[in-house]
């Protein structure tokens, strides 16, 4: 029974990461836009939904007690808005400026959630975020399964929408822009507008993912949205194979499994007073894994398509 | 407004400028923004910390020099740490960046690799030294009074002087020497540089050595004036990028001016909004410059 | 001193499975002045880039005298005695005119540098006029002069130029060719890639026609100039027999 409970918990978390990874795949895998501020978009989604759906709280603006779907939609919209602004500002510039700007956005959002205490609860974050199927909480197994099913359905829906988009004329032109900008321009398509649209769609998915995580866990705090989150999601996408939506999901589940297993191993093997130190080794591992894959298997496990061999 | 704000801003700004010159050098010649530059800053500070402890234990030199808080052990350790940081940067290039360059990987892939390297290095440093802050010395400094009621510590003055000396030295090196000329040639056109007889790989190694030594200097200065933490360089990264872009990527004097602007911006933010918003200054300046003048205050159009 | 250049079955290009130069043999004697002609995209630039180490070689070999050039790192080729002027981006526009010359002179012993830079100023007076201005401020013709001067400064045993007359007025192109003839007369082996075939045939002693990565014809300049099917040769339609 305990195993089943753990498996549903694991699956739910892994799938919520898969959702973020799908969002990043639209930006990076399909469009080639480098986002180093994934955590910021997830945070904006999580906080938006949390503020809208929690019951009114003393000393904090909001707690508007709105229904859950409203929170989720607003989360996607808020993150999309942020993504749109960032993209509009930087995509006309060099690709590396987008990377630097998104990095800055992550710092700024972290700063905002930490310091806008009346809205975000500051360092303590927001608690008592309503959980889906809260009425069934007395039956942990049913409750867990229901949550897993909801997250899985969300992933499936987003996957289906993204696949449709990728196969639509819009997605095909997007690919064309990624491969050969001038050719796409010759077709009369503005690469800049397409890129902004893709970045916005990706941001929306990340925001939705943030809301899903917030409601599944029940509380959020600034430390849930540190740069490590961005790194994890990147590792997931690169392992799975950027450009490929199924690869993104596979990578998320796999990397989360490795992460959780190594965490459990450290918890079991390393003495308590050294655990904080050992946890940093876990992060070293993700960093190394990211570099190793870039060096030796740039296509990931499920590559987008066979790469053309290059001359040395 | 209290004019002390400007003193604080200039001191912080000179530290940022020091780190930003290294960043902008690597950025313009190797053509990628190195997200692991912050970790070179951090590693430099920790190398110096360990070396100073070793030197102090072996031969002494821990007694403060004159009005400063640090002794000869730290000055010697600083030189050793620059060598060690340069070695770290060269190793990173050899195992990671050079391979990606040779494979003809896109800029953004190299950026991502630097991102992974940054994470691994930072957590590696945290593993070795733990997350708790460390200090070069516990000496307390008495601030000197300047006209106008301003206060500045001898250490802060030393940091300003060090920045000024290093900036001028690097500028002269890049503009006046054969090695500096080779660096500028590689920056413009690596293929032509090779045809003109320049050893491009050697020049790139030199860029790493310079960039890393400057990062180390920034780390030691920050360690002396504030404290040493595994995240010190990472926290400095956004101000460094803002300074480099403000000054126009590749411009050394620009990076220093950009650093001063960011430092002053941070000091003003602290004065008007409170210390908790300090880190927001660099972001606002970065966004402002990208909107108004993406090539930097001194950058060429299209450069 | 001047040395011969020899190519043995050179295969070169940018991707191993897609060679652009598909096995080229020819020899240029010491002190000879040879032109390489051919249609756009024939692989002329790729061929000479491969000889100079700026494009990948997948098979065969190139020699300067007894020195094997193939496999030499690009920055060692100049020191070995072969100078190369690429077709495009052949000067450092952000560096000053003086610095452009100093960079190449770096290969020489310290004592010899000033004299060689002086010799280049004598040959191309335009370059001595404002040596500290950025090279990017030069006109098209002056840029070509700077590029040629950069190559000549080391007194190479052989020099390869890729379309030095491109974009120049007929008059300036003529000047460049005359300068090259003078350098050749002083004993330097020259290989000249040109689109401007008629003008080049007046100065070279031999022409090699490259079509689709292979030598189609290798004949004395006078024979080539006399042929009235030169245009067709370029399209690869005429018979190769001389
Ligand atoms: N850097 C490169 N990467 C890949 N392919 C290239 C590159 N440069 C040239 N090519 C290809 O190699 C072929 C030959 O090009 P090359 O420049 O050698 O021709 P060329 O004979 O010099 O032509 P032109 O007279 O126009 O200068 C062309 O098909 C071109 O597309
Ligand atoms: Mg050509």
Record the SSE blueprint.
The complex is a heterotrimer of chains A (312), B (303) and C (242).
Chain A: H1 2-29, H2 38-53, H3 68-90, H4 95-115, H5 117-120, H6 140-167, H7 169-179, H8 181-186, H9 191-217, H10 227-240, H11 245-269, H12 275-296
Helix pairs in contact in A: 1-6, 1-9, 1-10, 1-11, 2-3, 2-4, 2-9, 3-9, 6-7, 7-9, 10-11, 10-12, 11-12
Chain B: H1 4-30, H2 37-59, H3 72-102, H4 107-129, E1 144-146, E2 150-152, H5 154-176, H6 178-188, H7 190-195, H8 200-225, H9 232-247, H10 252-273, H11 278-292
Antiparallel strand pairs in B: 1-2
Helix pairs in contact in B: 1-5, 1-8, 1-9, 1-10, 2-3, 2-4, 2-8, 2-9, 3-4, 3-8, 5-6, 5-8, 6-8, 9-10, 9-11, 10-11
Chain C: E1 5-15, E2 18-28, E3 33-37, H1 44-52, E4 56-64, E5 67-68, H2 74-80, E6 82-85, H3 97-105, H4 110-123, H5 126-129, H6 140-152, E7 158-162, H7 170-185, E8 189-193, H8 197-201, E9 206-211, E10 214-220, H9 221-226, H10 230-235
Descriptive overview:
The complex is a heterotrimer of chains A (312), B (303) and C (242). With 312 residues, chain A is mostly helical. Chain A has twelve helices and no strands. Chain A has one domain. The model of chain B has no long low-confidence stretch (mean pLDDT 91). In chain B, helix 1 (4-30) crosses helix 10. Chain B has a domain at 27-231. With 242 residues, chain C is an alpha/beta fold. Chain C has ten helices and ten strands. In chain C, the strands form two sheets. Chain C has a six-stranded mixed sheet, sandwiched between helices. The mean pLDDT of chain C is 89. Chains in contact: A-B, A-C, B-C. Bound molecules: adenosine-5'-triphosphate and magnesium ion (MG). Adenosine-5'-triphosphate is lined by residues 14, 20, 38, 40-46, 87, 195 of chain C.
């Amino acid at each position: 029974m305990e195993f089943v409970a753990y498996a549903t918990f694991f699956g739910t978390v892994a799938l919520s990461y898969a959702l973020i990874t799908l969002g990043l795949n639209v930006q990076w895998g399909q469009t080639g836009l480098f986002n180093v501020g994934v955590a910021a978009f997830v945070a904006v989604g999580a906080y938006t939904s949390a503020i809208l759906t929690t019951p009114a709280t003393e000393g904090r603006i909001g707690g508007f007690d709105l229904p859950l779907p409203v929170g989720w939609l607003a989360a996607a919209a808020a993150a999309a808005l942020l993504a749109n602004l960032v993209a509009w500002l930087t995509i006309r510039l060099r690709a590396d400026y987008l990377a630097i700007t998104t990095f800055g956005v992550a710092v700024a959002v972290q700063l905002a959630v930490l310091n806008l205490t009346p809205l975000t609860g500051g360092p303590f974050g927001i608690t008592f975020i309503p959980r889906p199927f809260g009425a069934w909480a007395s039956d942990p197994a049913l409750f867990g399964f229901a949550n897993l099913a909801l997250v899985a359905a969300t992933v499936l829906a987003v996957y289906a929408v993204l696949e449709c988009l990728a196969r639509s004329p819009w997605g095909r032109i997007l690919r064309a822009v990624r491969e050969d900008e001038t050719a796409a321009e010759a077709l009369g398509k503005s690469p800049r507008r397409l890129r902004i649209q893709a970045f916005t769609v990706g941001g929306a998915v990340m925001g939705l993912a943030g809301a899903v995580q917030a409601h599944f866990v029940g509380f959020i705090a600034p430390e849930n949205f540190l740069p490590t989150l961005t790194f994890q999601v990147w590792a997931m996408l690169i392992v799975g194979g950027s450009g490929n939506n199924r690869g993104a999901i596979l990578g998320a589940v796999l990397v989360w499994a490795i992460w959780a297993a190594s965490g459990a191993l450290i918890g079991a093997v390393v003495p308590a007073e050294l655990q904080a130190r050992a946890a940093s080794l876990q992060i070293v591992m993700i960093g190394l894994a990211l570099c190793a894959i870039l060096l030796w298997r740039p296509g990931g496990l499920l590559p987008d398509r066979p790469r053309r061999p290059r001359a040395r | 407004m209290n004019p002390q704000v400007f003193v604080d801003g200039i001191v912080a700004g000179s530290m940022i400028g020091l780190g930003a010159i290294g960043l902008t050098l690597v950025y313009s010649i190797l053509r990628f923004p190195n997200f692991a530059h912050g970790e070179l800053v951090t590693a430099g500070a920790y190398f110096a910390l360990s070396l100073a402890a070793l030197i102090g234990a072996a031969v002494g030199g821990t007694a403060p020099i004159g009005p400063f808080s640090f002794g000869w052990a730290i000055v010697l350790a600083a030189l050793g740490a620059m060598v060690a940081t340069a070695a770290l940067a060269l190793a990173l290039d050899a195992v990671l960046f050079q391979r990606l360059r040779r494979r003809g990987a896109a800029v953004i892939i190299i950026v991502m690799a630097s991102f992974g390297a940054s994470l691994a290095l930072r957590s590696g440093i945290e593993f070795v030294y733990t997350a708790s802050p460390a200090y070069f010395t516990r000496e307390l400094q008495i601030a000197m009074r300047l006209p106008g009621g301003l206060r500045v510590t001898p250490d802060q003055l030393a940091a300003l002087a060090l920045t000024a000396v290093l900036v001028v030295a690097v500028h002269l090196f890049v503009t006046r020497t054969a090695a500096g000329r080779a660096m500028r040639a590689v920056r413009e056109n690596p293929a032509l540089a090779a045809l003109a007889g320049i050893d491009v790989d050697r020049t790139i190694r030199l860029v790493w050595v310079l960039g890393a030594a400057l990062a180390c200097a920034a780390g030691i200065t920050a360690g002396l004036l504030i404290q040493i933490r595994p995240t010190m360089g990472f926290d400095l990264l956004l101000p460094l990028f803002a300074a480099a872009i403000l000054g126009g990527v590749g411009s050394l004097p620009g990076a220093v001016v950009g650093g001063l602007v960011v430092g002053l911006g941070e000091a003003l933010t602290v004065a008007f909004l409170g210390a908790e918003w300090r880190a927001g200054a660099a972001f606002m300046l970065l966004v402002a410059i990208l909107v108004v003048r993406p090539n930097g205050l001194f950058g060429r159009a299209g450069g | 001193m001047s040395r011969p250049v020899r190519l043995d079955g050179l295969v070169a290009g940018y991707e191993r499975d897609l060679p652009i130069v598909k096995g080229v043999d020819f020899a240029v004697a010491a002190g000879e002045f040879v032109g390489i002609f051919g249609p756009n995209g024939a692989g002329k630039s790729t061929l000479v880039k491969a000889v100079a180490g700026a494009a990948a070689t997948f098979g065969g070999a190139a020699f300067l005298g007894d020195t094997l050039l193939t496999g030499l790192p690009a920055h060692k080729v100049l020191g070995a005695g072969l100078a190369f002027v690429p077709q495009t981006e052949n000067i450092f526009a952000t560096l000053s005119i003086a610095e452009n010359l100093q960079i190449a002179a770096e290969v020489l012993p310290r004592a010899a540098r000033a004299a060689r830079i002086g010799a280049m100023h004598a040959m191309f007076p335009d370059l001595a006029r404002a040596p500290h201005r950025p090279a990017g401020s030069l006109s098209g013709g002056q840029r070509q002069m700077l590029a040629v001067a950069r190559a000549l400064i080391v007194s190479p045993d052989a020099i390869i130029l890729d379309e030095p007359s491109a974009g120049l007025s007929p008059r300036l192109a003529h000047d460049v060719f005359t300068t090259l003839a003078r350098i050749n007369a002083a004993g330097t082996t020259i290989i000249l890639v040109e689109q401007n075939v008629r003008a080049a045939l007046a100065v070279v002693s031999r022409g090699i026609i490259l079509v689709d990565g292979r030598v189609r014809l290798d004949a004395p300049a006078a024979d080539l100039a006399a042929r009235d099917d030169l245009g067709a040769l370029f399209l690869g339609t005429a018979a190769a027999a001389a």
